[in-house]
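Retro notes, item 3 of 5
We never archived the inputs for the thiamine diphosphate complex last cycle. Fixing that now. Sequence and ligand:
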Amino acid sequence: MKLNMVEAINLALKQEMKKDGNVIVLGEDVGVDGGVFRVTEGLLKLYGEKRVLDTPLAESGIIGTSIGMAAYGLKPVAEVQFSGFMYPGFDQLISHASRIRNRSRGMFSCPMVVRAPYSGGIRALEHHSESMEAIYVHTPGLKVVIPSRPYDAKGLLISSIRDPDPVIFLEPKRVYRAIKEEVPEEEYTLPLGKCNVVKEGNEITVVSYGAMMKLVLEAVEKLENVSAEVIDVRTLSPLDDETIINSVKKTGRCVIVHEAPRSCGFAAEIIARINEKALLSLEAPVKRITGYDTVIPLAKLENEYLPSVKRIMHGIEEVLSF
Amino acid sequence: MKKVLEQFGVEYLQILKEDGSIDEHLMPKLTSKQIKEMYKAMVLARIFDNKLLALQRQGSVGTIAQSTGQEASAVGSAFALEKNDFIFPSFRESGALLYRGLPMDNIIRVFGWDERGAKAENVNAFTMSIPVATHLLHAVGYGMACNIKNDKKVIMAYFGDGATSEGDFHEAMNFAGVFNAPVVFICQNNQFAISMPREKQTKAKSLAQKAIAYGFRGIQVDGNDVFAVYSAAKDAADNARKGRGPTLIECYTYRIADHTTSDDASKYRTEKELNEWKKKDPIDRLRKYMEKKKLWNKKDEGKLVKELQDSVNKAAEKAMAIEKPDIEDIFKYMYKEMTNELKEELNDLKESLKYEA
Ligand SMILES: Cc1ncc(C[n+]2csc(CCOP(=O)(O)OP(=O)(O)O)c2C)c(N)n1
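Structure as it came back at the time:
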């Protein structure tokens, strides 16, 4: 059936809750209201108040109590209404969720998922458009997943719920309803910690994830004469650098696209890995096409700030003509 | 129109007075055997604390937080629990943890820079939380899980007076109230958060009254009176088990030792105040009661102290004899399965250690 990302995630939640009685959904407005983006629509009716918890408005509370539930043996899937409001609960992630297994030498663990709508492009208020994935990637003990399309979102979310460790699942809200594609009705998983080679090619490697993937694909389609290999990272932590390195060894050139700020952004990590493992294969410096080290502007200037199809095309051409 | 919406009161409970006499009407049901058990657990906590301090002074363990003076609060509360109940300790709860059955050498190892000490099966206690107040949410989440699973456990969470100023205290109390979580909050009001006196944490007259705003019961007890602590904790635990939700118990006590071994309390409090509180010692008080009731004599005391000292010394020897962990341990517990990245980093470390050698 054809589903958008909201519907695909909703289906994944419904199916995992049906399959495993320990899966619990909690967050602000996730029950009666079905979530502000309707991602949890219908869950309350199906599974009742014990398993779909409308919580008080408190992110540390949501994430902190999820940790307690996970320690008990449940599998909480917490929704933080927007990733820009994760910070009150960030302490719980960095101080506890990510460390409990290590601190207790494996006696306790924290199998939970924190879902949050993320990144820009929907003409939102301040604090509703940020891309701060790097802070989670930089936190040892977390896994970080960012799907780019409905099919991936469903398979990756199911894998995240079944994963024995805490997963931050960031959902590009610009994609929520923008892509509709065939999504199998039955349950399926996609492996965490694996990049997806979306398109094969041999002249240049283009690495991206999340909402930028759609733009990247458009850009390479427009560059008809360029044979680009396109990689969707999908899981930022742990990172499958092998797929990226093998591709760069083949193409000798690489562009990385993300909308997050540039300094210490995820592209910097990929470049470091390329330097460590494929430097001598490079025929041009690796280029970053990213957001800037500024606050992301409101909608009047957002399109100028965010990487565009044209900017991506231009970057690819620049690297090719080096 | 103007009217009174609701009126509130805050209870205070003391049963065992400083001279060892009790208020018979308020005395909870306890057998002589149980009272001796409480006493033993309190003396063990004190002896263990002193041993930790000695080990710290000789450099065998790192910074420690002593609980001297707070033994009645730790033991009286833990005594109200059943085997399957679950506790979430702060970093100053050796007394409760030992009573719950955490082996002494485990605690010594944790303070002795060895994470492996935190692993102790079948104790029904969470690992201690160093970030103040953050673990209260874990306790509430655990309690919410018990509700979801119809599991009749009681969850007990320990924290200090300073912790009540943290946002997580508020969120935990609020969630506990809203979700009717079976949690007993034990606030060890030992009058200080490092150098900060209780009056500088809140303008409220008691910490117990904070529960009122969250819609559940709060009570202040004499935290140096093990019977009062036990009585309040038992009521709270019974209520939680019957589905009547959380309770906050403020144990009004005093931290006799420095905040930690890195602190010098003489900078912020007087010798006079300290000596006043030493007169209220929870262990002396219980012993006086037991002697009055002819449950205890000098011979019993000598025997107990010797026995506990021996077992504490043995535990310390055991902890000290354990070999250093493998370097794999640094990487092994970050995820259930070690990621490729961590495998590579482990190899890097091994290589660089070879070079250093
Ligand atoms: C979130 C956080 N802030 C600061 C500290 C440093 N710190 C450790 S103990 C402490 C005081 C705690 O006071 P209280 O809650 O009253 O407990 P007590 O130490 O008296 O048992 C402080 C400030 C910490 N561990 N965690």
